[in-house]
């Protein structure tokens, strides 16, 4: 049996990721992926037997990559405020590049079940929650369950981008104008999270 061409496999993965995460085509078929990659559908099936296998791989890679980037910031030896600014930067950059990634991930978790999220490293999050609690005792942020702080932070980051098609229409903005608005939110979110 001939060896599989890793370049073709990567082209299929990156094309699927672009369709799902960048263009928001969450229901793209293997034929859609093949067409966008400039190949026939049998090639997609040769490398990834089913659409579900391709989705599972893309999901796992995306979750792991984002988890690693966020974990790196959470465990960095930086003052707490700088860590928050780092999280805002990493998360916003990721969401701006792949605006439909969060919608895709949530959709897949709801469709395929919680088995998809078993490989997330909870260590950095657990340690970061302790750090949040220390900051609360110092009085730099509002006292509450530290989980609320993280939920609020990620909500402020993800919701506006997930809703961008509606907000652009609502505010009469083009994509560039909306991107500028999101860039302004980086500092606004930092100020919102601290006293």
From TrEMBL:
The keyword Protease does not apply. Transmembrane segments: none annotated. Keywords: DNA-binding. Residues 29-48 bind DNA. Pfam families: TetR_N. One of its GO terms (molecular function) is DNA binding. It comes from the Bacteria. InterPro entries: Homeodomain-like_sf (IPR009057), HTH-type_Tx_Regulator (IPR050624), HTH_TetR (IPR001647). Residues 6-66 form the HTH tetR-type domain. The keyword DNA-binding applies. This is TetR/AcrR family transcriptional regulator.
